[in-house]
Design a protein that fits this description.
The chain is of the alpha+beta class. It has a single domain, classed as Cytochrome P450 (Cytochrome p450, Orthogonal Bundle). Strands 1-2-8-5-3 form a five-stranded mixed beta sheet. It has a three-stranded antiparallel beta sheet with strand order 4-10-9. A two-stranded antiparallel sheet has the order 6-7.
């Protein structure tokens, strides 16, 4: 089914006259204010606002944030239209200009879609099967090393611990050992400042000279200098380790041109963010939900005993058999998707059902709102990993029911890496530690583009006496 036929089919089903199909504007959400529109409500709780929009008007609803016009697609059929729309109709480049100060000029959303596709093609070797087998060993090594730094009992700041751990994993897996070796020597702090450059204000005004943006720019220069220095060392020594940095150093564009050091640094930052930032947040939410469900943790531990009872060694093959843990990760992706909004700009007028969406509108899809629809997921506010197990398999009822990692052309290519990382982390931690909440279960922090929990967010731990999994 073509992109265009999707819209026309819905118009015909509505029984509208030919001349009136797809000409009506989407219904507008009630409660807008002069000048600011729905901005106040959106800042308080964007997910509740978008769910209210769906309840009022269905799959397609328009609203305003200040002077900007938005339309939200909610529900699997609307997701299908959003993800199937061609790049020349729904464009990502104009929307994600806030990433340019982070990744740099000449990469990702600072280049044409065609060149971006070519650059993303350089990433695939880093995610091949043989690489993933090695990544699992690295992930487990880093996770068990973390546990070894802990005492017999105490408390941990869960978001900080998950961020530090995933930086170490992603830098070692996706960039190179030299970067991992420097994580505790300034790289981690610089990367944290770079992360803070992804914020709501930065989405609208990425070059506005706020303290966070000045720290972001300074941190990027520091990281680029570090990466360029490592590349120079490799060229001088002749070292060619089998890692992603080296593959980029040896890569060529289709026209035969080599990548510049700045392009390589930008792509390394792109893949690092893809493999770390959202994973850290989802790892945090996964831990928070699991510690509230000790009976389900018992099932995960029993499954681990079945899978690893003889060898004791975590492996790629074993992780694929850990269905209970994977379903828990999926359920946390559903309840707490790190990216609560996916945004595109309407470049050419778009029709959906009997509505026309004019060019210049910002098209929004919200995993966080769509994952809470009662007509898609039973008892949607409840933590229930078994909803993903046969024969229920609620995520299989539509290809775009679960969209925490996006969909269509821009579906996150690192989804499998992220799932493996979360499963390894929580296999290691649940095997070695008993955990409970030390602070109340947190609300989402909507002030950040990647939505983690409000702080404080701490877990109390006690080391378990059972023999642990082996490295």
């Amino acid at each position: 089914m073509s992109d265009g036929s999707f819209s026309l089919r819905h118009g015909a089903e509505a029984g509208l006259p030919e001349q009136s199909r797809g000409t009506e504007p989407a219904p507008e959400l009630s409660g807008g204010w002069p000048l600011v529109g729905h901005l106040r409500e959106f800042q308080r709780d964007p997910v509740a606002m978008l769910l209210r929009a769906r309840h009022e008007h269905g799959d397609l609803v328009r609203f305003r944030l200040g002077p900007r016009r938005f339309v939200v697609f909610v529900g699997p059929e609307a997701h299908d239209a959003f993800f199937r729309a061609p790049e020349e109709q729904l464009g990502a480049k104009d929307v994600y200009q806030f990433t340019v100060p982070i990744f740099g000029r000449g990469v990702a959303y600072d280049v044409s879609p065609e060149l971006m596709d070519e650059q993303l093609g350089f990433l695939f070797p880093a995610l091949r099967e043989a690489a993933l087998e090695n990544f699992v060993r690295i992930m487990f090594d880093e996770a068990t090393s973390l546990v070894e730094t802990l005492g017999e009992e105490g408390e941990i700041d869960l978001p900080r611990v998950m961020n530090d751990l995933t930086v170490k994993i992603a830098s070692r897996c996706l960039i190179g050992q030299e970067v991992r070796d420097r994580v505790d020597e300034g790289f981690s702090d610089a990367y944290h400042d770079l992360q803070n450059g992804i914020n709501t204000l930065g989405f609208f005004f990425p070059r506005f000279p706020t303290p966070a943006h000045r720290s972001r720019d300074r941190a990027r220069r520091q990281i680029v200098d570090l990466l360029s220095g490592i590349m120079a060392e490799r060229r001088n020594s002749g070292a060619e380790p089998d890692d992603f940095m080296q593959s980029l150093m040896q890569a060529r564009y289709q026209d035969g041109r080599r990548l510049s050091d700045d392009e390589i640094a930008g792509l390394l930052l792109t893949v690092l963010f893809a493999g770390q930032h959202t994973s850290a947040v989802l790892a945090t939410w996964t831990g928070l939900e699991l510690v509230r469900e000790p009976h389900y943790v018992g099932r995960i531990r029993a499954e681990m005993q079945d899978v690893y009872g003889h060898s004791g060694a975590v492996s790629l093959a074993g992780l694929t058999r850990q269905a209970a843990l994977e379903n828990a990760v999926r359920e946390c992706e559903r309840l707490h998707p790190p990216l609560i909004l996916l945004v595109r700009k309407v470049l050419q007028p778009m029709r959906y059902q009997d509505h026309l969406i004019p060019a210049g509108t910002m098209a929004v899809l919200s995993p966080a709102a769509s994952h809470r629809l009662a007509d898609v997921f039973a008892d949607p506010d409840a933590f229930d990993p078994d909803r993903f197990a046969p024969p229920v398999s609620e995520d299989k009822q539509h290809v775009y029911a679960l969209i925490g990692f996006g969909g269509g052309k821009h579906r996150c290519m690192g989804k499998r890496f992220a799932y493996l990382q979360l499963k390894v982390i929580w296999s290691a931690l649940l095997d070695r530690l008993d955990l409970e909440l030390a602070t109340p279960f947190p609300a989402p922090h909507y002030g950040s583009w990647v939505t983690g929990p409000e702080e404080p967010c701490r877990l109390r731990y006690r080391r378990r006496s059972q023999a642990p999994l082996t490295r």
